[in-house]
Amino acid sequence: MEVLRIKAIDTHPIRHKMLRPNGTIEDCIFQGDGDELTFHLGAFVDKKLVSVASFYFEKHPNFQDPYQFRLRGMATLPDFQGLGLSSALLRTAFPVIKQNQCTLLWCNAREKALGFYSKVGFAPSGDIFTIPQIGKHQLMSIKID
Length: 145
Ligand SMILES: CC(C)(COP(=O)(O)OP(=O)(O)OC[C@H]1O[C@@H](n2cnc3c(N)ncnc32)[C@H](O)[C@@H]1OP(=O)(O)O)[C@@H](O)C(=O)NCCC(=O)NCCS
Known about the structure:
Layout: E1 2-6, H1 8-19, E2 39-45, E3 48-57, E4 68-76, H2 85-99, E5 104-110, H3 114-119, E6 123-131, E7 135-143
Parallel strand pairs: 4-5
Antiparallel strand pairs: 1-2, 2-3, 3-4, 5-7, 6-7
C-alpha cells in the first residue's frame, strides 16, 4: 500500500460511488477543492486508487482553535475497507496539517461512520443533525499536537 498526494479530480470516481451514488459527477466537486491549502490524499493498492480523503483549511465556529483543517470526502472502496487505509491517510495528513500551524481537524461525520472516527481518535461535539439528501451527521474533531 502506498499513500500519495492526488488531484481533486482523481477523488471523483470514489466520491461518486461511495458518497454521492445518486448524484452526478458535479456533485462530487466540493467547495474549496482547488484552494491553495487544500490537499487530497489517496491510498493505492497494486497501483489502484482505492481510498481517498481531502483536507481543507477551514474553521468551524464551534471550535476555538484559530487555525483548523476540515476533513471531507473520506471513503474506501468496499473490497478494501477494514484494512487500515483511511487510518493511513489520516496519519499522513496530521503532520501536513501541523506544518500549516493548525491544531485541530474536524469533520461532519456520517452516522454510519461514527464508529470509525471514534476508533481513530475523533471526539463528538453537539447534537446529531441532518444534511438533506445525505442523512444524519455528527460534528467530530481531533486535536493535532
Ligand atoms: C468509514 C470508512 C471511510 C473507513 O475506511 P477504512 O479504510 O475501512 O478504515 P480503516 O480500515 O482505516 O479503519 C480503522 C479502524 O476503524 C474500524 N472501522 C472502520 N469503519 C468502521 C465503522 N463504520 N464502525 C466502527 N469501526 C469501524 C476498522 O475496523 C479499524 O479498526 P481496527 O483498527 O481495530 O482494525 C469506510 O468504511 C467507508 O468508505 N465508508 C463509506 C463512506 C463513508 O461513510 N465515509 C465517511 C463519510 S463521513
